[in-house]
Amino acid sequence: MNLSEQQKRTLLNKDRKERIVSPFEKVLSQIKMHTQLILTFLGVSLGILLGFTLRSANLSSETIMIISFPGDLLMRMLKMLVLPLVVSSLITGVAVLDPKASGKIGLYAICYYILSTILAASLGIILVITIKPGDKETKSEVGEGTAKSTITSQDAIMDLIRNLFPENLIQATIQQGQTYYTYEKSNSIIKSSNSSVLSNDDEKKKWNFKYNDNTNILGVIAFCVAFGMIISSMGRKAEILLHLFLVLNEITMKFVKIIMWYAPFGILFLVSGKILEIDDMGNTARKLGLYMITVILGLMIHCFITLCSLYFIITRKNPFKFYYGCLQAVITGFGTSSSSATLPVTFRCLEENLRIDSRVTRFVLPIGSTINMDGTALYEAVAPIFIAQLNGRSLNFVEYIIISLTATVASIGAASIPSAGLVTMVIVLQSVGLPVKDISLIFAVDFFL
């Protein structure tokens, strides 16, 4: 059927109207597409500006708490979604994949996680040896440490394995086990030729195991992976249960979308509150500035060179396009200092922005947010050598290898919460006989790093 001349003109004019788009309309469409990303970036920027502006007012701790309140609400909302998100995503991610595919993906993911973590720890060691941020003069300015710990590397590794197999699954959702020691004085009788004397000088070290208020995410992950594999093996019999977790995952992601509109406002006050909590920023920067530069430089090199190179070698694609798709998760991670709190946002970025198969993200992300702690590994490799430099102790090549491997293992055991690296750093320090008390020297700059 031939079109009339009038119909052809109408179609041609319509095409021209669709093609002609003003620059203002293009900018407006881009803003609409990336509204949440722009708002999140503005939240971080304004939070930094507000924090430094209010520092001159010498606010009380109560006022700082009130300023931080909207940010505290954001952290609570994000952490609220972590458990249902991990449970539903892991179970469905494992169940919808056939055993061969899930095993292959899991093997690739774990190999990548271990490789990137070892590279991060090694990079940290190279930088701290090269830059040498610690010396005896710095130690005299910073002072002596006060932190104490009796937990050994063996205890930490055994706790990691114990937490993989929780004795109570409900308890694992709210508590995590940890070794601690108590010291009991024992009476001993010293016999002499004429009499016996009672002595109370002997101390007996007693092993104990307690539960702290922190989700045992490793135990939950281990159970969910096993549960998903059994659902997959049961086939049609377990379809109803699989649909239940699929719907739970979808509901949780809808919650995430709602919370993300509040996130920029919460991050603004979260960042400003953290800046206001630092007592003497100028003095801290003067004493530990070179240490901070070493860690930040290491993180930047690892992020923009090491990880980008790995991504390009494996996929042959532009890594910066991938980073652009994850930018909102990166900014949220900077504001919250928690990979667990950022997990819901990361899911959304990968599935909606980068269009990655949800079966892969559901399986890989929960595990990665728990065991793939590259930043923690780098931080835990730099800090012990910095402390060794402060104390004027020279480490040999074997001790550097021990620090690299121990930092890798310790970072896997670190909970994905703010400042968890300081807790597991005890393992690294004890592995090479460095004073644990000096951990307290770097407390002041932990938030930035």
Number-wise, the strands total 2
Estimate the mean pLDDT confidence: 80
Spatial order of strands in the largest sheet: 1-2
Unreliable residue runs: none
Order of helices and strands: HHHHHHHHEEHHHHHHHHHHH
Structural class designation? mainly alpha
**What is the helix tally?**
19
- Beta-strand portion reads 5-15%
Largest sheet: 2 strands, antiparallel
Relative helix content: over 70%
Structure, described:
- With 449 residues, the protein is mainly alpha-helical.
- 71% of the residues lie in helices and 7% in strands.
- The chain has a two-stranded antiparallel ribbon.
- It is globular, with a radius of gyration of 27 Å.
What does the secondary structure layout of this molecule look like, with pairings?
Elements: H1 5-19, H2 23-33, H3 35-54, H4 61-96, H5 99-131, H6 136-142, H7 153-164, H8 169-172, E1 176-191, E2 196-212, H9 217-234, H10 239-260, H11 263-277, H12 281-315, H13 319-325, H14 327-336, H15 339-353, H16 358-371, H17 374-390, H18 397-413, H19 420-431
Antiparallel strand pairs: 1-2
